[in-house]
Design brief:
Layout: E1 4-7, E2 10-13, E3 16-17, H1 18-25, E4 29-33, H2 34-47, E5 54-58, H3 65-73, E6 77-80, H4 83-91, E7 99-101, H5 108-117, E8 121-124, H6 127-140, E9 144-149, H7 175-183, E10 191-197, H8 208-226, E11 233-235, H9 252-263, E12 269-272, H10 276-279, E13 283-294, E14 299-303, H11 312-316, E15 322-324, E16 333-339, E17 348-356, E18 363-366, E19 387-392, E20 395-400, H12 405-409
Parallel strand pairs: 4-19, 5-6, 5-12, 6-7, 7-8, 8-9, 9-10, 10-11, 11-12, 14-16
Antiparallel strand pairs: 1-2, 2-3, 4-13, 13-14, 13-18, 15-18, 16-17, 19-20
Helix pairs in contact: 2-9, 5-6, 8-9
The chain binds ligand LLP.
Length: 419
């Protein structure tokens, strides 16, 4: 993981020792490298510079306003999926005409908010949504531009829960229905149907599923054009995989070399929506050992972080590397489960993993936690969400305060009939 390296025995994020952050903010916490986010963004932009795409970083991967701001300042647009994400995006200073809005269930309120702010495109996932957008836009007397998200019915060779381009999935519109919508577009006078969107899933490490999907999409677009429909935007989604363990994912340049030949004959404005590629290896989750426990069957390392803070291992059995924040060469390695304090057997970060024989108070870094880490955190077991820290060079700052118990019970109330 670039920008997370040892100097002597201490793990650093850029030029800051992670143990120093722990001293200042306590544990657990997320730590992010500014340089990792921005370098990955730049790497993708460079790989596709011949077509000058609009890269809309996928907010859901890591939506801290500081992270969004760092990317927006580099020129990134944003992919959003809710009114909440739109609010954050605007707080981060992104120009509304660099925002694209996906999701199968947008409410009238959310649609209204997005039209009023003047976002670039809605990525529309059903015929009913076209009707809803047209209805809200008519009321506002403001036209809304949309892309139709097509479901190409391809498998993405990734975890079932993050596959989105199969016909059984709730996402997108099958090509026949999508074609009918385009041919019928004059029925929606306040909708400007001008783009195609496709996103087949996440953590895709090879080019092949993308190529299969985009080939189908290009045939679809050519057919539409032959029927007199003009397509201005082609949004190819996100999905680029990263290294968690020993995967060797395609680089941005390799991806570009596969994709560019498929699309170069057309003059579309191409949009990408990378999330994990930009954020995944830009962050680690740091947690401290509370106790160790050796049973007849297993060794357990019990830490102060838990599945509510980082749910990926529990939810997808995802692998995250575990590194000592301070290497102690005296420790032998043993096979252990690294578990949190939550009352669930599924509350683990690693299972039967060879790790140093960590002792009480040792700090552990759960790596590759920059994407879908904090954004999927919850308050289960009334655990305050942890703080987030961003490092840039030798500086670091808290970019989200640790929640307090008071934060968690705010808004709760004992009803009068119980008093
Ligand atoms: N565009 C759309 C429409 C999406 O639904 C997503 C992710 C992205 C872009 C960004 O995909 P990425 O480049 O990050 O693969 N929580 C799961 C991942 C869920 C992905 C949801 N959609 C995980 O932790 O693996």
């Amino acid at each position: 993981m670039r920008n997370f390296d040892y100097k002597k025995n201490d793990l650093y994020c850029e030029s800051v020792a992670i143990k120093d952050i722990a001293k200042k903010v306590g544990t657990p916490f997320y730590v992010y490298s500014y340089k990792s986010f921005t370098d990955s963004y730049t790497e993708l932009a460079k790989a596709f510079k011949s077509i000058k795409p609009l890269i809309c970083y996928s907010t859901k991967a890591n939506s801290n306003i500081a992270v969004l701001t760092a990317l927006v300042k580099k020129g990134s647009g944003l992919d959003i999926v809710s009114g909440g994400e739109l609010y954050r995006a605007l707080k981060a200073g992104v120009k509304p005409n660099k925002i694209v809005y996906a999701g199968v269930g947008k409410t009238d309120e959310e649609i209204k908010f997005a039209i009023q702010k003047g976002i670039l495109l809605f990525n529309v996932e059903s015929a009913a949504e076209v009707v809803a957008i047209n209805r809200v836009a008519t009321k506002l007397k403001k036209k809304a531009s949309i892309s139709i998200r097509v479901n190409p019915d391809v498998s993405a060779n990734t975890h079932d829960y993050i596959t989105t381009g199969k016909k059984e999935s709730k996402f997108g519109i099958d090509m026949d229905t999508a074609r009918a919508l385009f041919l019928d577009k004059n029925r929606y006078p306040y909708v400007n149907m001008c783009g195609i969107h496709v996103h087949i899933g996440s953590q895709i490490t090879t080019g092949e599923p993308f190529v299969r999907a985009f080939r189908k999409v290009m045939i679809f677009v050519t057919n539409l054009e032959n029927q007199g429909i003009k397509i201005k935007f082609l949004n190819l989604g996100g999905g680029l995989g990263i290294t968690y363990d020993n995967e060797k994912p395609q680089t941005a340049a390799e991806y570009a070399s596969k994709i560019l030949p498929l699309i170069k004959s057309k003059k579309f404005k191409v949009i990408f929506e990378p999330g994990r590629f930009i954020a995944g290896n830009a962050g680690a989750f740091v947690t401290q050992v509370l106790y160790t426990k050796k049973t007849e069957a297993k060794n357990f390392i019990i830490v102060d972080g838990a599945m509510n803070d980082l749910i990926r291992p529990s939810l997808y059995e995802a692998y995250h590397d575990v590194k000592p924040v301070m290497k102690n060469i005296k420790l032998k390695s043993i096979k252990s489960d690294i578990v949190g304090p939550i009352c669930e057997t599924g509350d683990f970060f690693a299972k039967d993993r060879r790790v140093p024989d960590f002792q009480d108070k040792d700090l552990l870094a759960i790596m590759s936690a920059g994407a879908y880490g904090f954004t999927m955190a919850s308050n289960y077991n009334t655990r305050p969400r942890v703080c987030e820290v961003m490092v840039k060079g030798n500086q670091f700052e808290v970019i989200r305060k640790r929640e307090t118990i008071e934060d968690l019970v705010r808004g709760e109330k004992i009803p009068s009939f119980l008093k």
